[in-house]
Amino acid sequence: MSKIKKIFFSVILMLSVVLLAGCGNQTKASNSDTIIIGSHHSDLNIWEYIAKSPQAKKMGLNIKTREITDGSQINAATSSGQVDVNAYQSWSYLQAYNKQNPKGKLAALGTTYLEPLGIYSKKYKKISQIPDGTTVAVANDPADESRDLLLLQSAGLITLKKGFTALGGVNDVAKNPKNLKFKEIDETTGPRVMDDVPIVLISNSVALDSGLHVLQNSIFHEKLDQDTKSNVNVLATAEKNKNNPTYKKLIKLYHNKEIQKYINKKYYGTKVEVNKPLSYFDK
């Protein structure tokens, strides 16, 4: 082989190495720039839409979604780094999870919406029609159960003990004038037990999946006020990532006007936008 050919092949080899290295670095950078959002139910559908939106592209956000059907598993996956951010839970649910998992705490990035919890019945059309001794189905998860009981109190059916917390349960009912009987169920089975239980409390995500509309089909539902602010949903991440500037962009993206138009139309106004600083929960 001539000297010129040796030089030529050497140059080609060097260029190949540089290009391969560059491609490898580019792939790594691309992966590290991807935000994986864990979610389920309608929240998963929302973030699948947002991930493909021109608004996300304009903000330079590369979003991937991952479906995990159990709430506690979503939080565990977020804490361990299997997902970066999650979108499904209320502020009170997050606080309850952190109390139960002090070594894997999560932090809120910002607020998204209030999805009203509803009281449903196939037997009664008004709260005033509920007779003594009626069985009421509430969630068996501590955070969801406490929210259910607070709504029953708002409806004037029960009175809870002073100092009732996000981990409170049926044992914290101070007054029960109608002698309601409580049946604890898996929160996701609410629509299916309506034929057997006269009164059932169902979250709107589960209700929507079953064709129920909280603003039209419930006999009583939450309103956005000081008493329900802890039920406002948040985006959450591992505590060490709470100041991540890229993750915080997700809050701004969620509240984009065009994104909100889609959400309101798709979910019939049942996801009430709440764009508040995290200090809102301390007031």
Automatic annotation (TrEMBL):
Keywords: Lipoprotein, Membrane, Palmitate, Signal. It holds the Pfam family Lipoprotein_9. Transmembrane segments: none annotated. Belongs to the nlpA lipoprotein family. It is a lipid-anchor. InterPro entries: Lipoprotein_NlpA. Residues 1-21 form the signal peptide. PROSITE patterns: PROKAR_LIPOPROTEIN. Its main location: membrane. GO terms for cellular component: membrane. The keyword Membrane applies. It is found in: Membrane. A lipid is attached at residue 23 (S-diacylglycerol cysteine). This is Lipoprotein.
